Amino acid sequence: MRARGFGIAAPLVVLLAFSSAAAGDDSDPAGLSLEELLSIELTIASKTGTTAREAPGIVTLVTAEEIAASGARDLIDILRLVPGFDFGVDVQGVVGLGARGSWGHEGKILLLLDGQELNEPLYSTLQFGNRYPVSQIAKIEIIRGPGSAIYGGYAELAVVNIITKGADELRGFAGAVVAGEMSDASARRRADVSYGANFGAGSFAVHGSVADGNRSDTTFTDFLGDSYDMADNSELDSRYLNLLATWKNYKARMIVDQYRTTQRDEFGENLPAAVDVDFDSLFLEATAVYLARPGLSITPRVNYKKQEPWQESHADFFYQKEVERLTGNVTLNWAPSDRTSVLGGVEYYEDRAEADPRTDPSGYFPNGRLDISYDNIAAFGQGMFRTPIGNVTVGLRFEDHSEFGSSVVPRIGLTRVAGRFHFKLLASQAFRTPAIENVRLGPGIEPEETTVYELEAGYQLRDDLFVAANLFDTTIEKPIIYFFDGETDTEGYSNEGDTGTRGVEVEARFRQKWGYLNAGYSYYEASGNEVASYAVPGVDDALLGFPRHKLTLAANMKAGSRLRFSPSIVHYGTRYGFGHGDENGDPVLEKFDSSTLVNLFLYAPDVLATGLTIGIGVYDALGEDYVFIQPYDNYHAPYPDATREYAIRVTYSVR
Fold first, then answer.
1. Which domains does the chain have, with CATH numbers?
2. For the whole model, what pTM was predicted?
């Protein structure tokens, strides 16, 4: 496996050199009762602290304790356990995310890391696999539904907000080393190091990580029947740095994220040799909070990001472009009483993209140049009111884009908590503005618009048992659809007919002193789908790639006086995909039977030294050899996930 400069020796030496004067480990999931868990405040759905039951959205909270206890290797392991979320393959070996049966890879799902938008503005995509160190996460807040009224155009189907540990959580050094092996290749090697401290009126936190790995070690066969061994041909390497400094009401952050992949999977057919496809990002943020008077705060924020996604250069293909986004935002929070809170603000951003001079003229931007810029101005407002019938939330976002003109998306919600019972009635609209390359490759492309209706009810059956279920109905108008024509070797985008899904999601949490049990179930069916490349011929209520039924189970329990055991199960129902061609080269529909992914993790906290935790895990214990299916018909064979993996994880904290 090539290292490409990403050695892990130095961080490993630092980790093992930590003093043995460590303080207690915080990975014990039994530390929170169910009542304490349900009382944790979230800000993702409203920008104002509310519990999950009060939040004006269908939300999921994943805590640091649950992440550590599960033995999760990366974000894929974590998000697979969330109802309605699943993964599919795009092109060039990239795995993306879907929600509630809809493909959300290109700009339909917003991923935030400490407030930074990780979606890249060229295509608006996200890439998953051996990326972002999960040991450094304090919590993940998720909206399973639209968030455009607050967050804008990437938050069409869902929002995932990753919050890393700050100085208060760290209070010193922390580190983790992970090593995993498949039968014929290394699955991953990762070293994470963190430090955080408070000093006077300020604080400082830093996270660093280096990793390398392989997507899989099995054989991939493309649409045309050509095969190769994925070991050392599907590498996933990363290095990552996250710095945060605060002083009184001021905050500054910098994130450097370099994700380097190697693949032979191009656009439906294999390359003769492995090539590098790189995704590099730099994020900067400066924020201040001004308390104008009690109950009234004004928060100006400036964000800058520079990204170089999908970088590939070889004899048959050249793509080298970079994009910058500079964003200015001023948000006002006003709480005139304990029954009313108001959020409002304005935001402006400018996107600038530039292509390498070696770019073929076909890759020039619509202005015929190697550079282009767009700008966008937005105003948003939201009011939350406590009334006799429940909490009423009313919100609206207006945006005016230099290329596409104006968009307006409203949201309205009614939530009520009455003792152990709660319910939510929500209606929201969302949108997705075409990305820079969507415009270049799709002349006349227009924004897509989404309308979502949701109803949730939940009940705390006992002090240790909580259950919630929701119904959803999602309609996407004028969806932006990607296509690649293998005969002409061209790609493009177009708006097509409506698509959407409707279904149900259920979550249950059971917690006692011995541990916990989290269960989830999700079901979707296609609703009015008119997009041919999403459809499953002969099965009108299914869409390509994603199972209609998904069942999840994650537990943590005592396994002796010093051991804890964490099994997790993800059961997928039947899936459909186009994988291979017939004798005429036409795609053949394949039915993929149900599959069950079982991960088993055993760990010992405070072993040998206080703060030292050692764990071992088996992933895909049943050997299902799961594959990612392309959720649209574009001549791509199923792409193998990791085979059975054996891993060891060592974490150590010093306070």
1. 9-654 (2.40.170.20)
2. 0.94
